[in-house]
Design goal:
286 residues; TIM Barrel; 9-stranded mixed beta sheet; 11 helices
């Protein structure tokens, strides 16, 4: 399901979760409050997962309680890995979206959530029920959506088939994720065009981990194939800790905004507030 306007999802959670230095809770609150003023559609701002798995985000509850949401239109998203996390997230009125990483790679799914694909389908069904009961929307991140470094089968057809299967479960938003930065324009075009055609009622997004030399071609391929929902992170911080290429990080928000301006699409971004948050990101992620 494509819309006329591009949706911008800023991902400080993805930037922070694997960062090598501790970020104080007060700093996170200050940074996310700054991002809230920019005008993004959604902030992927934290996660309710095991503190042992992601210690950097163990303070998500404190961060949420410290946010100033007065006169703010930006919606909040958090990531969960199981039903317990979904129940925690659903208890927060501030949260609008609950994200769940579902991988088409059996090995990566086990690394990410300690469960295989079959178990994860059941987990997702339960998360959908929990979210629905509390009026939250579920966003499924199709991890390894454009290839994987393991021995698991991968093809564009497999990625498309999984999107169809997820939609059949009742998933309304699917963010196709290039977890390790291997996507190319041809595969992006093939997957998005097919999914747009076969799943007209599903909102499809792009969550690209990229190198500096290919993010513009990936953005362009997804946009031209009908994608209007893009995840990004200021300065390109973050990415997958399993990526072997140290140049692979999140899609830089500034590059995405530059492309949108280039093609003449309207945006609701407040430039002065963006600049403040951008400078803050440079101080935090050093």
């Amino acid at each position: 399901m494509s819309t006329d306007r591009i949706k911008l999802i800023e991902c400080p959670r993805d930037a922070m979760q694997g960062f090598h230095h501790e970020i104080p809770t007060t700093t996170k609150i200050e940074y996310i409050n700054a991002l809230l003023k920019v005008g993004f559609d959604v902030l992927d701002c934290g996660s309710f997962v095991s503190p042992k798995a992601v210690p950097m985000l163990a303070d998500t509850e404190d961060v949420l309680n410290g946010l100033d949401l007065k006169n703010i239109d930006t919606k909040l998203l958090v990531i969960v890995a199981n039903e317990r996390g979904a129940e925690q997230a659903a208890a927060f009125k501030q949260i609008n979206y609950i994200g769940y990483p579902f991988s088409i790679s059996e090995q990566f799914q086990r690394r990410n959530t300690n469960h295989g694909i079959i178990e994860s389908i059941e987990t997702l069904k339960n998360i959908l029920n929990i979210s629905s009961s509390e009026n939250k929307e579920v966003v499924v991140y199709l991890s390894m959506g454009f290839g994987n470094p393991y021995s698991d089968e991968w093809s564009t057809k497999l990625a498309i088939d999984w999107c169809i299967r997820l939609a059949a479960l009742g998933v309304k938003t699917i963010s196709l994720s290039d977890t390790i930065g291997v996507a190319n324009a041809e595969d992006i075009t093939t997957i998005f065009l097919a999914c747009q055609k076969q799943l007209p009622d599903v909102e499809l997004g792009a969550h690209f981990h990229t190198r500096p030399d290919n993010y513009l071609q990936n953005i362009a391929a997804a946009y031209k194939a009908g994608c209007r929902r893009f995840d990004s992170a200021m300065r390109g911080y973050g990415g997958c800790p399993f990526a072997s290429d140290k140049l692979t990080g999140n899609l830089p928000t500034e590059a995405l905004l530059s492309y949108i301006r280039h093609i003449g699409e309207p945006m609701q971004i407040k430039t002065s507030e963006f600049d403040i948050a951008y400078l803050m990101a440079g101080r935090i992620f050093i």
